[in-house]
Design goal:
34% strand; 416 residues; elongated; 5-stranded antiparallel sheet; Agglutinin, subunit A; mainly beta
């Protein structure tokens, strides 16, 4: 409930006290006083007893207050990252989720240091988060307003929108966190302008901390019919593609309709539910996995949909392995012949030789293997995927010479 309503409560209390003093010591006074009390109580609870879904100029949303969408589906408010950290963030979560896991976070890179956070609509019409430091964090930084005639509203879809003079100027669905909600669009937008915008999921850095993590999900910039999971070091895995008729995701579900659209203005991927029996959404975890969540009567249920085995539906094989923290000083490379799974290769088309490729791979703990076999005999291909997937390709493809970190099967080549 927005705190300006407390002013109304003070006025009611003043009216109540004044009425009692004027009508004291009379029988009528008791009856009228009771009537005033009933009227004031009804007015207060009718007007302010329920949380609002809208923030207007002059309203203040404090740390212990929330906005609730009209249908009671989503909540917007401040939350703590938990653990030993006192950092606070503003986010949106499902009202019936007892864990209150946010599906969107406004200030991922600018946490508030304590519980002093406030959300307001500033004099210039922009949504601003402040705390005791009085350093403003503009929520709608991607699309600033031009007047003070604005208001913010939380929708039942989980979308926070900012309107100016009745027109939508900004929405949280265009600035995603780690969650793919029904109606959200992943993709490439404003293609007919000089201000092209990408919309993709970015993982949290850990299960408790919403700071930007190392993984992202979205449509590929080069092959725009393909959806991929990227890791910060540019390793990637394909998880879906448009086959010309429908979008085929790496897991099949009768809950969703995935919708792929391509025009001169945008190329996008979204989904909607086939039925109204349950509400489901998809999350990119801090370890690069894909989790599917469903809201049921008894709470939230989730399924880890990441498949680490080969999938004949997609060209991609295996999972992106976690990023190792250290490399062993005595790491050796074994020589094999085969091919690298094309969906998780980082190519560097620069004029370097085999020794340079080794240095590049050896210096990165996430590099599983390297090869030097570009058409002109120079350049490197670095592999960041699962070693088991690579060893399954021995003797296949162009039978190229590949150097794999660690030991390889004895019949695959000689130690390097």
């Amino acid at each position: 409930m927005v705190s300006v309503h407390s002013v109304f409560l003070i006025n009611l209390q003043f009216l109540w006290t004044s009425s009692l003093s004027v009508m004291a010591n009379t029988k009528v006074a008791n009856r009228l006083a009771f009537l005033v009390y009933v009227v004031m109580s009804c007015c207060y609870f009718a007007c302010f007893g329920q949380s609002t879904d809208t923030l207007r100029p002059g309203d203040i949303l404090r740390n212990n207050e929330t906005l609730i969408s009209a249908g009671g589906v989503f909540v917007l408010g401040f939350f703590s990252s938990g653990g030993s950290s006192s950092n606070h963030y503003m986010g949106i979560w499902l009202k019936n989720d007892k864990h209150k896991k946010p599906v969107w976070v406004a200030n991922r890179g600018n946490p508030i240091l304590d519980s002093s956070g406030l959300l307001t609509i500033r004099y210039d019409g922009n949504m601003v988060i402040t705390d005791v430091r009085r350093i403003p964090i503009i929520v709608n930084y991607g699309m600033l307003t031009t007047s003070s005639n604005t208001s913010a509203k939380l929708l039942d879809a989980g979308n926070l929108i900012l309107t100016e003079s009745g027109n939508n100027v900004w929405q949280s669905f265009n600035y995603l966190s780690d969650t793919f909600l029904p109606g959200v669009k992943l993709g490439i937008f404003n293609l007919d302008t000089k201000s092209i915008k990408l919309n993709f999921l970015v993982s949290w850095v850990s299960p408790l901390v919403p700071t930007t993590g190392p993984y992202a999900v979205g449509l590929d910039w080069t092959n725009r019919t393909v959806c991929k999971v990227w890791r910060r070091d540019l390793a990637f895995r394909q998880i879906g593609f448009w086959d010309g008729h429908r979008f085929r995701f790496f897991f099949e579900s009768d809950r969703y309709n995935f919708i792929y659209a391509s025009s001169s203005r945008e190329i996008s991927l979204t989904f909607k539910h086939k039925g109204n029996n349950s509400f489901s959404w998809i999350v990119l975890t801090s370890t690069g996995e894909i989790n599917e969540f469903t809201m049921l009567d008894h709470g939230v249920e989730f399924v880890n949909q990441t498949r680490c085995e080969g999938n004949s539906l997609l060209k991609s094989k295996g999972c992106l392995i976690p990023m190792p923290s250290v490399c062993r000083d005595d790491d050796k490379f074994s020589e094999i012949r085969g091919s690298m799974p094309n969906s998780i290769i980082l190519s560097a088309s620069i004029r370097v030789g085999p020794s340079d490729c080794e240095i590049m791979c050896r210096s990165n703990c996430s590099c599983t293997a390297y090869a030097s076999f570009h058409d002109d005999g120079t350049g490197c291909e670095l592999y960041y995927g699962d070693k088991k997937d690579l060893l399954n390709e021995i003797g296949k493809g162009n039978d190229n010479l590949i150097y794999v970190r660690g030991d390889a099967p004895a019949n695959s080549g000689r130690p390097y």
